[in-house]
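Repro:
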Amino acid sequence: MPALPYDLKALEPIISEKQLSLHYLKHHQAYVDGANAALEEIASAHKVGVAAEMRYLPEELVFNVAGNILHSLYWHSMAPEGEGGELQGSLAEVLYRDFDDLKTFRDEFSRTAVSLQGSGWVALTYDPVLAQLLITKIQIHQNGLYPMLPLVLVLDVWEHAYYLDYENRRKEYVQNWWRLVNWRELEERFEKIKNQLAS
């Protein structure tokens, strides 16, 4: 389990300690445990040559690893209210170019999150071919995830991310979540993405 970059009370009142504890300690932990269990089963199946068991294990592994990746990015996409800085640097330049302004981007990202049918994630990705930021939906963890497009920002809209605090009011959760976005972290993440693509 990756460590949280803040304590369990740090995101209150937007995300309560109870909500964050359940999400991080139970749901995220379940993905880590699931990935480790799948790795152990794959290793055992290889040793004894049980090909039949291999049919589901790679899918199980990828689902859980993707869940761990997304949650890890999600925790670091947030900071206690007022501590995440402002959008600036090269991320600001590209975002303003692709979405005109921050409000337009936030509105489009929020609409995508609220309108996502069922559970899933919304992500701001960077397409190196188009050299453009794109908003995408990830409805099943392993679909639309690495190595397809690098992820700059992710928002968890599975019900387990907000239901204790907001019940079925996803729109309110999404609106409040913007107060937690860690723009400094996202700028560093975007710079790393650009440097990796350039090398």
